[in-house]
């Protein structure tokens, strides 16, 4: 009875984490309504989350100290922090200036298929026939959803979608490349260090561009920046990790399917976005394809 209760608690924790993660795009789009550029919103997100990750990095500084880490390992950590959290976030925030929040989440949800493709091309790992079918389905779903949106909103949709795809590729590259580093540092230590690197990259980027007076923005933008940092970045990262520990990664793969759906619902409520029937059909194909890949992969591990 206790294990069943823990299982459902793990499901609830995972759903909450996924929904909070999914709310990021909606809150970014809300911030853009105040005529703020992407790097300024990203700066606020990193500024509010930076102290939290500094504290986590300090608390977990002794994690896995028995395992030898070289200066080369730290250089790779810096690289993956740059690619996986800075570039992925920046491309995502730029893409959101062009496309709907709901479509953004559908594209980002492709990252497990991109991981498979990167593993195939760089690590020579085989892709099974069911995985090939699922990958084909997911990209067919993207084409269906975006073909309809291009007809409605114009060429800006393709540009925005391209930036979001670059974000998904950057994050998938981080997942593929950092896998061998995480056991050396420990997941909490590695993640907090990588996030600190990402924050510093954003600070440098803003200092070089510096188009907006960050101290003279509407209070709503600061509030949204705080929400994005804490409730759409830091908190859900711990909720998801806890959920995976409680219910296993294969079960969480099913929970993750809530992501695009919750973004579509939140975008309808807060942004008054509407997807056409064809776009919803494309989104459904993407979700089913990715879930099939995730479950198939989990069953083999």
Question: How is this structure best described in words?
Answer:
With 301 residues, the chain is mainly alpha-helical. It has one domain (24-300). It is built from 13 helices and no strands. The protein has helices at residues 2-32, 38-59, 71-95, 101-108, 111-122, 129-153, 156-178, 182-185, 187-209, 219-247, 249-255, 258-270, 277-300. α4 packs antiparallel against α12 (258-270). The chain is globular and about 55 Å long. The mean pLDDT is 87. It is a multi-pass membrane protein. Keywords: Membrane, Transmembrane, Transmembrane helix. The chain crosses the membrane at residues 7-32, 38-61, 73-99, 105-123, 130-147, 159-183, 190-209, 221-240, 252-271, 277-295.
Descriptors:
301 residues; mainly alpha; 82% helix; globular
Q: Level of helix content?
A: over 70%
Low-confidence stretches: none
The secondary structure category is: mainly alpha
One letter per element, helices H and strands E, the order comes to HHHHHHHHHHHHH
Number of strands: 0
N/C terminus separation = 27 Å
Average pLDDT value? Answer: 87
Backbone shape = globular
Give the helix tally. Answer: 13
Strand % is: under 5%
Radius of gyration: 19 Å
Please describe the biggest sheet, giving its number of strands, its sense, and whether it closes into a barrel.
none
The number of distinct structural domains comes to: 1
InterPro entries: AA-Vitamin_Transporters (IPR050638), EamA_dom (IPR000620), EmrE-like (IPR037185)
Pfam families: EamA
Organism: Hyunsoonleella flava
Domain EamA: 9-146, 160-294
């Amino acid at each position: 009875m206790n294990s069943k209760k823990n299982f459902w608690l793990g499901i609830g924790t995972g759903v909450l984490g996924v929904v909070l993660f999914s709310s990021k795009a909606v809150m970014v789009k809300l911030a853009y309504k105040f005529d703020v550029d992407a790097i300024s919103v990203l700066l606020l997100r990193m500024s509010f989350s930076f102290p939290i990750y500094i504290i986590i990095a300090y608390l977990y500084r002794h994690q896995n100290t028995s395992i030898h880490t070289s200066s080369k390992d730290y250089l790779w950590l810096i690289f993956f922090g740059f690619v996986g959290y800075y570039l992925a976030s920046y491309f995502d925030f730029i893409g959101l200036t062009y496309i709907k929040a709901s479509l953004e989440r559908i594209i980002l949800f492709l990252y497990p298929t991109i991981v498979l493709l990167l593993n195939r091309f760089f690590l020579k790992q085989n892709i099974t026939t069911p995985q090939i079918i699922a990958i084909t389905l997911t990209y067919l779903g993207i084409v269906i959803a975006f073909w309809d949106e291009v007809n409605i909103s114009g060429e800006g949709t393709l540009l925005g979608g391209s930036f979001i795809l670059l974000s998904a590729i950057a994050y998938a590259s981080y997942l593929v490349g950092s896998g061998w580093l995480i056991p050396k540092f420990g997941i909490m230590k590695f993640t907090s260090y990588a996030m600190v690197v990402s924050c510093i990259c954003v600070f440098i980027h803003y200092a070089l561009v510096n188009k907006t007076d960050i101290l003279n923005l509407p209070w709503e933008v600061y509030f949204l920046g705080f929400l994005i940092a804490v409730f759409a970045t830091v908190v859900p990262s711990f909720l998801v990790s806890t959920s995976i520990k409680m219910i296993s990664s294969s079960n969480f793969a099913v929970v993750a399917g809530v992501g695009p759906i919750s973004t579509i619902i939140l975008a309808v409520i807060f942004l008054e976005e509407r997807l056409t029937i064809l776009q919803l059909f494309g989104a459904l194909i993407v979700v089913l394809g990715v879930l099939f890949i995730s479950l198939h992969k989990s069953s083999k591990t």
